[in-house]
Design brief:
Layout lengths: L9 E2 L6 E2 L3 E7 L10 H6 L5 E8 L10 E8 L3 E2 L2 E2 L14 E7 L2 E6 L5 E6 L4 E4 L4 E6 L5 E8 L7 H6 L3 E6 L2 E6 L6
Antiparallel strand pairs: 1-2, 3-4, 4-5, 5-13, 6-7, 8-11, 8-13, 9-10, 9-12, 14-15
Bound molecules: 6-O-phosphono-alpha-D-mannopyranose and zinc ion.
């Protein structure tokens, strides 16, 4: 007789949270995100310990292994730096042609997708939204709501993360609160 084993990891679908010994977690606090937000003076006035987002992930095989998959979730707290909403750092994949899925569990937000030519589009995220991020597209998630935004993600184990391209180029646009509504605004230097 063959035993039926239990899985090493479980998901709470109401929250997206993962449980199990193999789970890794990381936190991003404001102080770790210097240079990310447009409004540097507003940033300087805020508490560097303020939590911006948390990530949990399961890497069932070694990072860099071709053909495997990783699973994770991210929760972005509600908040703003000046008029710009809290967001992930954003990245493209080190192996450029690797794709990814993002599916929102809770909250409201916007996914920014920028191709290699620098053309950016924005997609709504809400409970049940499923976004396909094609290879070659930089991706960033922005929490435009009043509550935490949680999404789950699945990506190839040999994708890797390239943060330098996004850090130097940005996305060409920023999601800002204008008259209390999220708007996609072309990037401009922060003025008075
Ligand atoms: C998702 C996945 C992860 C990523 C995380 C946070 O869960 O895409 O690979 O690390 O979001 O995004 P970032 O790495 O841009 O901070
Ligand atoms: Zn990715």
């Amino acid at each position: 007789m063959l035993d039926i084993s239990t899985t090493r990891v479980t998901i709470d679908w109401l929250t997206g949270r993962l449980s199990g010994n193999a789970i890794t977690s990381k936190e991003k606090r404001l102080g770790q995100l210097a240079g990310l937000f447009r409004h540097q003076e507003a940033f300087a006035r805020m508490d560097p310990d303020q939590l911006v987002y948390t990530v949990q992930y399961w890497m069932p095989i070694d990072e860099g292994t071709p053909g495997g998959l990783f699973w994770g979730n991210t929760t972005i707290e509600p908040g703003r730096v000046g008029d710009e909403y809290f967001m992930t750092a954003g990245h493209c994949h080190a192996a450029l042609n690797r794709a990814e899925f993002y599916a929102a569990v809770k909250g409201e937000g916007v996914l920014l997708l920028m191709n290699e030519s620098g053309n950016t589009r924005a997609e709504k995220m809400h409970p049940g939204s499923l976004s396909y991020i094609p290879g070659g597209f930089a991706h960033r998630v922005v929490n435009t709501g009043q509550t935490p935004l949680t999404f789950v993600a699945c990506w190839p184990s040999d994708a890797g993360h390239d943060y330098t391209t996004v850090a130097s180029r940005g996305f060409g646009v920023r999601i800002r609160s204008i008259d209390d509504l999220p708007q996609v605004i072309q990037e401009v230097a922060c003025g008075p």
